[in-house]
Amino acid sequence: MTAATPTRTRRIDASWAISLFGTAVGAGILFLPINAGASGVWPLIIATLLIGPMTYFSHRALARMVCVSPRKGEDITVVARDYFGTTAGWVVTVLYFAAIYPIVLIYGVSITNTVDSLIVNQLGGPQINRVLLSGLLVGSMTLVMVFGQKLMLAVTQVLVYPLIFLLGAISLYLVPSWNLEGFFGAPSPGVWATVGAVWLVIPVLVFSFNHSPAISQFSLAMQRTHGDNAARRASVVLAATATLLTVFTMFFVWSCSLALGADGLADAREANLPVLSHLANVFDNPVLTYLAPVIAIAAIVSSYFGHVLGASEGAASIVRGVLNRPLPERGLQLGVYAFIFLTTWLAAVLNPGVLDLIETLSGPVIAALLYLMPMYAIRRVPALAPYRRHASNVFVVVAGLVAISAVIYAMF
User: Where along the sequence do coiled-coil regions lie (predicted)?
Assistant: First the structure.
């Protein structure tokens, strides 16, 4: 194999940083300011300071599990069985699939509803048959995955660069409407109320910043590109992704919060509207009305790709284990993509209103797999011994326990 040139490796690293950003910034960003900003200024400040390190350290640990595995070229499902044994490894594989796959279904529903609303409400067109529209949209997104990672990365970049630009543009557009006195001048909720507010908003941020479904395939790409230097280069790429997410996403959250104020955010929550739709109603601005679905479509499609990577990885591993015999890799991959397409198409046609339920059920599993499992592996697995006794490990474990406990509290 010919060694990759420095220019090519930098291009691959940059492509993955953008792809991971796109995986994280899904449809949840449209509701994120309402959830994150509703508790006032101090919880939002604390959450802003915490989420960057939380995102970076947790995803870095998960990537290291794959990058330093003695089984080069094997994904997280195989690595988990090597590290934890067959039974525990299978539990991890099933949970990995169960945490990601429902979100893929919801993205099929979301893209159909968003495009349907755009055609009917903004463009004044006819309502297209839902079976046909959803099949075309879900099929097009899945077809990109069928043609491989190179096309997926290329399409993601086409989508995510405008998404980054639009998030920044809307955030800046709202600056003249900031009501600093209304937001910063609100009565302080008190220390314990602030701690409670931060506790409850952490799972929302963890879910919104989560790009773990793509980490396994990203780590394998780092192995192919950088060889023994994969873990270090993965850390660099993940730092860039966490920085992009923190700067652009949290600036968007802050700008929306300052423009709407605590009362405006409460009104948006009461109306159950995405924050951009509420902004368009409040400011009566046609630009926001048209930008909202564009941002939603770009966010949904880019995040769909990353989640399909993880879901297909888990599904393929489950099929191999159930059949317990060698299978042609390309045939298995195409079969899994066909399953994902058909079930996501069905979900889009049925149009279930279960987004909050799915996020609530997936949330604890994602937090456990992303925050706690890698820390357990670092403590137990000899290959990960160099990463022990780091202060960041304690930080990740505490953050994971906080996120899981808050989700469980919210459920009950």
Answer: none
